[in-house]
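Q: For a teaching handout, I want to show students what a protein-ligand complex looks like in token form. Below are the inputs, and the small molecule is BTX. Please produce the holo structure.
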Amino acid sequence: MLEQKVLEILKQNNENYVSGESLSEHLGVTRTSIWKHINSLKEAGYNIESVTRKGYRLIDSSDILNEFEVKNGLQTDLIGNKIVYIKEVDSTNLYARKIALEGAEDGTVVIADAQTAGRGRLGRNWSSMAGKGIWMSVVLRPQISPEEVQIITLGASVAAIKAIYDVTGIRAGIKWPNDIICDGKKVCGILTEMNSEVEMVNFLILGIGINVNHTILDFPDEIKSIATSLAVYSGMNDKKNVKLFRRSDIIKKLLYELEQIYNKIKKGAVKDIIDEWKLYSATLGKQVRVIYKNDTYTGTALDIRDDGRLVVKCDDGCTRDVFSGEVSVRGILGY
Ligand code: BTX
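A: Here is the structure, written as tokens, with BTX included.
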């Protein structure tokens, strides 16, 4: 991939000019060929300045998302070895499921710039505007039973929190089981879907959606009051000419953190994941309302068990374990 080699050299030169002559010598192709590759990089969105007698320079690659940007500097051994980048897809979870059924290997990652039918839990929608967020699914083939799947979702929330903090400095919290929130609003959602036998998981699709560079106007009206993005939360949108967060940087860190979690799960170090989850929890110790099928009750979220169940001390004095269902937390998303 000559185009990528040109890009790598421009990146290594940190916004300094590189002459067409040195590029063509280094890569063993004609200057016309270099010029053509520079043009296609420009078409892909890279801001490359060309000046006669000086050459080319890359002016900050801002928030460009493609396979190269994710692979370049990715520090994982397994997750992301294969990356499928698609400009627009119905749902990365559906696409990942399809390729998993066709044999896609453990750790394959599907990333889209836009989803036309992004999916939330329980048949809900996930708004996935082009160019603004991270819409990504990972194919995992862990040797675990279906009951153990919840730990992957909890671990993925921990990975997302850490990646967001590392790249943006934003400290988000986790609302049980898997909403990542800032200021009480949802900035990231996780949807884990599985294909399994009774006792053994065949594969999992771990879908992660993060609102990154949205302004508040980018969200559909029905979720404006409950959704936020990293840019909105950090106040970036209020300032003029500010840089955008680079989605590829967040993805790279997220894949790295996911791999750490995945390795812990393989080693059976589930307690470490639960302990980390507790550190970031925005649910434990809070007043909660649980809605499960036709049952609704209130109480205090006490703890989380090793299989991910939430322990609630109900207002009527009894203690209940919540495995699934809706849990709202007082002060978060309008409860
Ligand atoms: P959830 O069911 O917890 O959340 C869905 C609910 O969140 C919606 O009903 C709506 O109220 C609200 N919502 C919809 N879009 C957004 C948004 N962009 N930001 C904040 N709130 C929103 C959470 O489900 C799981 C979401 C997983 C999304 C990823 S993206 C990559 C992968 N592919 C795919 O189709 N889904 C996953």
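A: Two things your students might notice: The mean pLDDT is 93. The pocket of BTX is lined by residues 91-93, 115, 118-122, 124-128, 135-137, 179, 186, 189-191, 207-209, 211, 223, 226-227 (CB under 6 Å).
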